[in-house]
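REVIEWER CHECKLIST
Item 1: Sequence provided? yes
Item 2: Single chain? yes
Item 3: Sequence as submitted:
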Amino acid sequence: MSISMLEISKTAMYEGEFKDRRIEFSESCKWLSEELGFPYKSTRMGDYERLLKTFVNPGAKVPTEQDLIDDFYHFMQAATEACQIIRLWNTFKDGKHDGLKDRIKHVMSGKSLRAEAIKKNAKGENDDPARDFAFELNIASRFLKGGYEVDLTDDCDVVVNIGKDKLYVECKRIKSIKKLASRIKKASSQIDTRIGANRKNKYGLIALDVTDVLLPEGTVAATSNVHLYDMEIQRAITDFAKEQEYVSTKNAGRNVAGILFEYNSSAFFPHEEKEPSLGFGRSACMYRHASQNKKSLALVSGFTGKIANQNL
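Item 4: Structure as written out by the authors:
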């Protein structure tokens, strides 16, 4: 019987002014337009730019109560997406990365609100390629910020060079718990194909974004304690990984050294004595398969801490 293990690291907390995030998002959009050649105003990035001005527009009409509810929800969704774009800008703005431009082009497409984008289309499919590509770049960003070289030109979603070893990462966004097993199995099969017959110094990692399962409507959490929020989102992703241990072990093949589970959410923190604040959480945990050989386990242990606890 194989035994699997969860790697849990204490998350780091970062604070900053919202006005600074707005400035960074403007810089991100400028980068998209001037450096990469993608006019952003007609894309979902332009929608976020407009939504981020919702509560700071002096010429706005007096809203109804329902308008406030809807507008705040849209505002928080835009702010969450903006933080993700800022992260990509921070990671990729200073260097030339082959294959980046094609992926960024896809990231900018699609519906603005995630809750709308994950609804089934006319064919009964949950099709949201823009955020699929964004998740791939997010995972690439984790490794680049961790000090590793990343290849975005391979057929694999992300290839990471770790010394003499190559890590083949297949990224999947899970939109339905019913599809978890088949998505892990597909990712595992893709990794087998990428690695091929010669397995020397080659390993696989499956990265799963389970936000749409844990928070399908993108609901904003309301809590007075930022550390409690941090604990809640970390517990949510850890509990999910534990609950799906059997599914993970059964469907991940011999080339899969581990599975990274990730979850994103946002929060509103009211305060009696000062202005309210916003929070954007990104929690993750690494799941290692103990049936793997020692070198495989050591490889995962070696990079887990380096790709965790990263600011925007």
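Item 5: Key structural point noted by reviewer: The first helix runs from residue 18 to 35.
Item 6: Recommendation: ____
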